[in-house]
Amino acid sequence: MSQSDVKAVRPLSPHLQIYKPILTMVTSILQRITGAALYFGMLLVAWWLVAVASGPAYYDFVSGLFGSIIGYLVLFGFTWALMFHLLGGLRHFLWDTARGMEKGTRDKIALANVIGSILLTVVVWIIVLAVA
Predict the structure, then answer these.
(1) Residues annotated as binding site for heme?
(2) SS3 state at 22
(3) What's the sign of the alpha-carbon dihedral 60, 34, 42, 96?
(4) Which of 37, 75, 84, 93 is most buried, by the most CB atoms less than 10 A from its CB?
């Protein structure tokens, strides 16, 4: 048997099952997920714009879908994803200036990102429902 046929025993890289989830890791993963969700949410915005341009009948159809319970849930989720991604971008911008990198500060900023996104989403929907 030649030396090239023997597989080298190498250590495996750590994976997600090994790491204990911490808040900054979870918010980093959510930042990526909300970015993808916003991509698909923009398709809804484009669909609504096409409906506006297509005439009253099609606009009423799309508005009816968006105005349903499921439509409200999707739009609420889209709003939350937008707010979370916005605050996450501001958090990363802060970190790009080399501020807020201490362990305690990182955790506080990550928690503020989560709580702030929820509060901003609720405020936006209170305003939307009050105006409508």
Answers:
(1) 85
(2) coil
(3) positive
(4) 84
Annotated binding site: 85
Tally the domains of the chain: 1
- Residue 49: inside a domain, yes or no? yes
Average pLDDT value for the chain: 90
Tokens representing 62 are: 């799309």
- State yes or no: pLDDT of 72 exceeds 70: yes
Asked whether the beta carbons of 62 and 99 are under 8 A apart, the reply is no
- Residues 6+ away with beta carbon under 8 Å from 91: 27, 100, 109, 110, 113
Residue 4 included in any domain: no
The model's pTM is 0.82
CA 90/CA 119 separation, integer angstroms: 16
